[in-house]
Amino acid sequence: MFTEIKSKCENEMNGTLEYLRHEFSTLRTGRASVTLLDGIKVDYYGTQTPLSQVSSVSVPEARLIVIQPWEKKMLGVIEKAIMASDLSLNPNNDGQVIRIPIPAMTDERRKEMVKFAHKLAEEAKVSIRNHRREVNTVIKKSESDGNISKDNVADGLDEIQEITDKYIKRIDEAIKTKEKEILEI
Fold it and tell me: Which pTM value belongs to this model?
């Protein structure tokens, strides 16, 4: 029974970490990345479709994203979707491809992005701690129901704390890496 609880807890904490990494991948840094456009959806025959499913997206240079739609008539739709997004990007449509220059970020904007990244990391840590609290409650309830001994409860709580510490450390490493990436000129 405890193995199931521990496994479920670890899966939930891993899900939180993966979600944080995904959120970090969409944060704008000073360099171009195809993941920057992951959240953009375009109207494709009446269906909101991810940009990556209607075009080829590449990064030929450090500060340039190139979008090659599979259908030329999608150029205008893609351009409008990018301008409507909150990414503050200015796409250039030449009739064949869309080029998006990624401007260098100001120091002020970099600091804002770092602050936002830290906020996301803190939210992830809170989520990890909430998972720990839920599992600890289940373990303690099992003891009060007479399903496990006091020694096993103490061991279980210690193991859950070790798992929690491991994921908190991974979040700290992720934010440190992202901060370095954002502040890089």
Answer: 0.71
